[in-house]
From TrEMBL, chain A:
Organism: Gryllus longicercus
Cellular component terms per the entry's GO annotation: cytoplasm; integrator complex
Pfam families: Beta-Casp, IntS9_C, Lactamase_B_6
Chain ranges of the Beta-Casp domain: 304-433
Gene Ontology terms: biological process: snRNA 3'-end processing
Name this protein carries in UniProt: Beta-Casp domain-containing protein
Automatic annotation (TrEMBL), chain B:
Signal peptide: none
One Gene Ontology biological process: RNA 3'-end processing
Keywords, ordered alphabetically: Cytoplasm, Hydrolase, Metal-binding, Nucleus, Zinc
Organism: Gryllus longicercus
GO terms for cellular component: cytoplasm; nucleus
Matching InterPro entries: Beta_Casp (IPR022712), INTS11-like_MBL-fold (IPR041897), IntS11_C (IPR048662), MBL (IPR050698), Metallo-B-lactamas (IPR001279), RibonucZ/Hydroxyglut_hydro (IPR036866), RMMBL (IPR011108)
Cofactor: Zn(2+)
Residue stretches making up the Metallo-beta-lactamase domain: 16-210
Name of this protein: Integrator complex subunit 11
Family designation: Belongs to the metallo-beta-lactamase superfamily. RNA-metabolizing metallo-beta-lactamase-like family. INTS11 subfamily.
Length: 656, 595
């Protein structure tokens, strides 16, 4: 069994697992960090961005490079449509992938890159919310980038990486970076998804059984259990033991796996999500009180639902009931609508509401009474009439490189009364803000990452007791942002393997046996011999049928009468006949002598030697050498005699 | 226990009061727990004393599974749990769990408050009962205990209706509940995978019907409604609050929109408004089209359909009224019926099946006068139409389901005896499957063949498969597995003989034979060996015959030639007992040559 690592970001995982000749891809996360190297795509032409000075390396005179790079406050950016670094089909050809398992909607943004135009012909499994909300993420990404097309695309900077300033110079394989896919690719790849429910057992070509179990991280998020008859592999992706809106994590199903692959731990291990949420509410209230507005860059689903709920009640409690909240996303309406029809995937509290029947999320109510207003874009009809400051705006994209958020940073950035609050942990907030500097508006970092932290993960490992633990190398040392925090690592007494991008691990799983079915007729014909108390053996020769990778043992049909077939074939079958039993144990010499005497062989002479006995039958010119675990009969060509001795010998020995 | 036992307490050769006891692999499962709408006495509930004459039943029933929220499938559940005292697990889907208590409460009110019945469960009983329910999602595998596994499939009969697959060990049963194989205006079609159960228990309400196309029936329905309102008549459509009602509403709504009709359409308030909310929230259980468009427009927000007020009964002029319950056995629909029935301009459209004993059933059978408990007699002059909108599978659908899941036996329930008989013959003929149709209280025993799972050492399995793959393909050649089955503790594993001995902790006793024969063959002994080799090779074409260090070997058989040049040679043939056939064959071969 082998594990290939195609991703360098443990929160955007992409692994390949080969087991029992099946190639499984575990998640297909898309690392979007590369977009931070590009200039933002403003919705309306921005004089500031247009007037940024160009940047050229000192010693290179490449005319093509001119205009590709711009400088802003000491940082150099590429002036082009943003590019992404998808998992590479280098160590595994994507056309060989049989099955893709998707854990949650944050781990599937590379799906179109993998399934489209690569010869991929397998199946993709994901839960219904993962597929529906994943569609929103993919659509939003495409909309955001396509609504602000770039006239020219820069690529020559990739040829001169060595003379570029950091962090551009540290770019990993920029030649393999890709532009965003189009809607056709999105739709085609989503069409390959087969929806699954939690605890639904999926049969993978008869060889494996795969099950999605609730991971408690977001709507429809799952961990995966991969079983063969005797081996169990648990793949833990984004998981959470906190109580938010999703169905709680199912830990029982992950217990006692031979191999546990652990990934998707928190990206902000030093921040407590609960206190961050409190801080966010405070910051919003303070800003609004001073007459400023608040921008919260966000994804179209996820923690944002909890923010609506907490923030509205906090503002109500602070007497700011008239402050509007805007949720702006090309998929805002769908996201809000879907969240309220997926009751079966929610926490019990929220789930019980539908029995009343009431919508599980309060944002349905907030929308009805006009507290929360949602728009596809800022230029959508009605927004300009509803828009009034101070207000709270939720919109994408958290990278601040595209989407309506770019507009609000540009619009509000000059006013120190306003605040931008970063809650999504995917991007370092200072880097996200870099192309907008200098900024007057306050920037507050309140990362809310509900995924497992190291304490929770270590406890989880102790509870799950995996045979071997497999995880990204980065989890074995403290994070770069807090190198002294030795508590922020995975510590375990279990055997541990770690991996990094482009590595192949051989997982220590030795399969010894597997399960087959035996027909009841065959079972009836068995003659078990008890060789020891509680241990019985039965020699068995059976026909084996293999269908869909499932084996069945049945009674071996006797061949037809030899007359009707070729002689040689009949001979072959006779010679091929397997033994019906085996002999074991020690030969009782006295019994043997007694029996051959009864059969008329009266001249036996027994001689004791070091290794056992030697029996002479002088008249028959035969010698029998008997040891503890073997008997050897040496005789002349007399067939009848030999067979007589054989029969008697076999009578005297234990058989099974 | 290779037998599967099934005893219907209700729905055996009968429609209504579905309640089927299933025993397999030592587990007892109750499938549905319905009540009979046609009876007002103890016959309305299944006869639970059948399970155990007295005392609590929890120890006799491992779980109860409810297929959908119709009262003939769940109506007796509060009685069973709160009055009879069953306290074990109960399973149903989320929408069923949400909607069933509302229908139960509604029915209870009609029975107790309007009819003044006693010995009925209370409002609190319904609430307590529903607290004990475990909600399941589609395709989720639920382990009731360590041996009993259940899984729900989409049935498309009403919102949340499910078929259930039930497994203990290697035996499995599928219970369909009520299902529908053709997608309708708001639900999708039933679906099941090729799960090859030992037994399929299917409903057979429409066992003999092959319904005409859905579109024709809809056109027919709209035409009749339109004609009636054109002549100023009133149309009464008795429905269950949930299910067909929503489909007919969608149908009328779009028709009214298209034809620009102004005649009022009413829906009995209360239940239905709430019902539509359930539909909005469980939209994932509706069909593809509704799910795709619900963000833009929720199909269950109706523009033309308004809530009904009892005062409207005597309003003049045309109107269309949907009212519950669907079988005219009580409640508002019956009240309206009594008022409107004597006028020949009016019309009642029965869109669903009516149980024997209900007013609906009498009306459908052409009764012109109906007498009620209080001696009130109502003349039926209004036109009576039956439109089969009820979402059950027809004969074609049932056959289709059998084809989908490939059961080894079929049982028909929830249908009329005569119709079942017809379908039973059809199933026997077309699929050559055994088909059972037990009556209530009658037990069917289904013999199943039991496959026994055993372990096989991978080494043995791989060796066989390597040997098989090395040979040229021949579909006629049967693949042979040979080994020793080790039965130890509770495990059973097939291994090769040496592995087995090690595992069992015993020593094999090898038996070997060596026979000598003399041969006149001048020349060096290596030459003789070469000759023998050619001879053996010629005879044993498919065998691996080898010559090493002057001795010929085939499997465990060794042939060795000794003796000087020009001398008589001694040929030793030796073999292990397990190669007795081969060894003696080769010995015989050499003997004949030697002569």
């Amino acid at each position: 069994m082998k594990l290939y690592c195609l991703s360098c970001d443990p929160n955007k995982p992409c692994y390949i697992l080969r087991f029992k000749e099946i190639t499984l891809m575990l998640d297909c996360g898309l690392s979007a960090h590369t977009v931070l190297n590009f200039l933002p795509l403003p919705l309306v032409p921005s004089a500031r961005l247009n007037n940024l000075p160009g940047w050229m390396p000192r010693d290179i005179a490449d005319a093509h490079l001119e205009g590709e790079l711009k400088e802003c406050c000491g940082r150099v950016f590429v002036d082009s449509a943003p590019e992404f670094f998808p998992p590479q089909p280098k160590i595994v050809d994507f056309s060989e992938v049989d099955v893709i398992l998707i854990s949650n909607y944050l781990c599937m943004l590379a799906l179109p890159y993998i399934t489209e135009g690569t010869g991929f012909s397998g199946v993709v499994y994901a839960t219904e919310p993962t597929m529906q909300i994943g569609r929103l993420f993919l659509e939003e990404l495409v909309h955001h980038i396509e609504q602000t097309p770039k006239a020219t695309l820069a690529s020559h900077w990739k040829e001169h990486l060595h003379v570029l300033p950091a962090p551009l110079s540290d770019s990993l394989k920029p030649r393999n970076w890709r532009h965003i896919y189009d809607m056709k690719a999105v739709n085609d790849s989503l069409a390959k998804i087969q929806m699954v429910g939690y605890n639904e057992k999926l049969d993978i070509y008869g060889a494996l059984e795969v099950t999605a179990v609730s991971s408690g991280y977001c709507l429809g998020s799952s961990n995966w259990v991969i079983n063969s008859h005797y081996e169990k592999i648990a793949y833990v992706s984004g998981s959470s033991t906190l109580t938010t809106h999703p169905k709680p994590m199912d830990q029982g199903a992950l217990k006692n796996a031979n191999v546990l692959i652990l990934t998707g731990l928190t990206q902000t291990p030093t921040a407590n999500p609960d206190s961050m949420l409190g801080e966010l509410c405070m910051t919003v209230a303070n800003t609004l009180r001073c007459g400023g507005s608040v921008l919260i860059p966000c994804y179209p689903s996820g923690v944002v639902y909890d923010l609506f709920e907490c923030l509205s009640s906090h503002l109500d409690a602070s007497g700011m009931t008239s402050i509007p909240m805007f949720f702006i996303s090309p998929v805002a309406d769908t996201s809000l609508a879907y969240s309220n029809i997926l009751a079966e995937w929610l926490s019990t509290n929220k789930q019980n509401k539908v029995y009343l029947p009431e919508e599980p999320f309060p944002h349905a109510f907030l929308v009805r009474n006009g507290r929360l207003k949602h728009f596809k874009h800022i230029y959508t009809e009605g927004f300009s009439t509803d828009y009034k400051q101070p207000c709270v705006v939720f919109c994408g994209h958290p990278s601040l490189r595209f989407g309506d958020a770019v507009h609000f940073v540009e619009l509000w950035g000059g006013n120190a009364l306003n605040t931008i609050i970063f809650t999504e942990p995917d991007f370092p907030y200072l880097e996200a803000l870099a192309p907008f500097q200098p900024l007057a508006m306050k920037a507050v970092h309140c990362p809310i990452d509900t995924s497992l932290n190291f304490t929770q993960a270590n406890k989880l490992i102790r509870d799950l007791k995996p045979g071997t633990l497999v995880l990204p190398e980065s989890y074995r040392q403290p994070p770069g942002t807090a190198p002294h925090r030795l508590d922020l690592i995975i510590e375990t007494d279990r055997p541990l393997l770690s991996f990094k991008r482009d590595e192949v691990l051989t997982l220590p799983l030795k399969r010894k046996q597997t399960q087959v079915d035996m027909s009841p007729e065959l079972a009836e014909n068995l003659v078990p011999n008890e060789v020891r108390s509680g241990v019985a053996l039965a020699t068995l020769t059976a026909a084996i049928q293999v269908k869909d990778n499932k084996h069945t043992l049945k009674i071996l049909e006797e061949p037809e009468k030899p007359s009707s077939r070729k002689k040689s074939r009949a001979l072959e079958e006779a010679l091929n006949k397997k033994p019906t039993n085996y002999t074991w144990g020690v030969l009782d010499i006295d019994e043997f002598i007694q029996k051959i005497t009864q059969e008329g062989i009266t001249d036996a002479k027994v001689e004791q030697v070091a290794s056992g006995y030697i029996i002479h039958l002088p008249n028959e010119d035969t010698l029998i050498q008997v040891e503890d675990s073997s008997t050897h009969i040496f005789c002349e060509g007399d067939m009848l005699l030999r067979q007589k001795l054989r029969t008697i010998l076999l009578q005297c020995l234990n058989k099974f | 226990m290779p037998d599967i036992k099934v005893t219907p307490l209700g729905a055996g050769q009968d429609v209504g009061r579905s309640c089927i006891l299933l025993s397999l692999g030592g587990k007892n499962i109750m499938l549905d727990c319905g009540m009979h709408m046609g009876f007002n006495d103890e016959r309305r509930f299944p006869d639970f004393t059948y399970i155990a004459p007295e005392g609590p039943l929890t120890s006799y029933v491992d779980c109860v599974i409810i297929s959908h929220f119709h009262l003939d499938h769940c109506g007796a559940l509060p009685y069973f749990t709160e009055v009879v005292g069953y306290s074990g697990p109960i399973y149903m889907t989320h929408p069923t769990k949400a909607i069933a208590p509302i229908l139960l409460e509604d029915m209870r009110k009609v029975a107790v408050e309007k009819k003044g019945e006693s010995n009925f469960f209370t409002s609190q009983n319904v609430k307590d009962c529903m607290k004990k329910v475990t909600a399941v999602t589609l395709h989720q595998s639920v382990m009731v205990d360590s041996e009993l596994e259940i899984k729900a499939y989409y049935a498309g009969h009403v919102l949340g209706a499910a078929m259930f697959w039930i497994r203990v060990g290697s035996q499995s049963v599928v219970y369909t509940g009520d299902y529908n194989m053709t997608p309708d205006r708001h639900l999708g079609a039933a679906w099941i995978d090729k799960c090859r159960p030992d037994l399929l228990i299917s409903e057979s309400t429409y066992a003999t019907t092959i319904r005409d196309s859905k579109r024709c029936r809809e056109r027919d329905f709209l035409k009749k409604v339109h004609e009636c309102i054109d002549r100023g008549g009133k149309v009464l459509i008795p429905v269950f609050a949930l299910g067909r009602a929503q489909e007919l509403c969608i149908l009328l709504e779009t028709y009214w929109e298209r034809m620009n009709l102004k005649v009022p359409v009413y829906f009995a308030v209360g239940l239905t408004e709430k019902a539509n909310n359930y539909y909005k929230m469980f939209i994932t259980w509706t069909n593809q089209k509704i799910r795709k468009t619900f963000v833009q427009r929720n199909m269950f927000d109706f523009k033309h359909i308004k809530p009904f007020d009892k005062a409207y009964i005597d309003n003049p002029g045309a109107m269309v009224v949907f009212a519950t319950p669907g079988m005219l056995h009580a409640g508002l629909s019956l009240q309206i019926f009594k008022k409107w029935a004597p006028n020949e301009n009016n019309m009642v459209i029965m869109p669903g099946f009516c149980v024997v004993g209900t007013v609906g059933h009498k009306v459908l059978n052409g009764a012109k006068k109906i007498e009620f408990e209080n001696r009130q007699v109502v003349e039926v002059k209004m036109s009576v139409q039956y439109m089969s909108f009820s979402a059950h599978a027809d004969a074609k659908g049932i056959m289709q389901l059998i084809q989908y899941c490939e059961p080894k036996n079929v049982m028909l329930v929830h249908g009329e005896a005569a119709k079942m008989e017809f379908l039973k013959e059809k199933i026997k003929k077309e699929f050559s499957l055994d088909c059972y149709t037990p009556a209530n209280g009658e037990t069917s025993i289904i013999n199943t063949s039991l496959c026994i799972p055993i372990d096989v050492s991978l080494r043995l399995l791989k060796a066989e498969s390597m040997k098989h793959n090395a040979l040229p393909p021949d579909p006629k050649r049967s693949r042979v597995m040979h080994g020793v089955l080790v039965m130890k503790d509770s495990s059973t594993c097939l291994m090769d003989v040496d592995e087995a001995c090690r595992e069992a902790g015993i020593n094999r006793h090898f038996v070997r034979f060596t026979s000598t024969l003399r041969m006149e063959d001048p020349g060096p002994s290596s030459k003789t060996a070469e000759k023998l080799l050619q001879l053996i090779k010629a005879r044993l074409k498919d065998w691996h015959v080898q010559l090493t260090d002057g001795s010929i070997s085939v499997e465990s058989v060794l042939v060795k030639v000794e003796g000087n040049e020009d001398e008589q040679k001694s040929v030793y043939v030796s073999w292990d007992n397990q190669d007795e056939e081969l060894g003696s064959y080769i010995l015989g071969l050499l003997q004949t040559m030697g002569q």
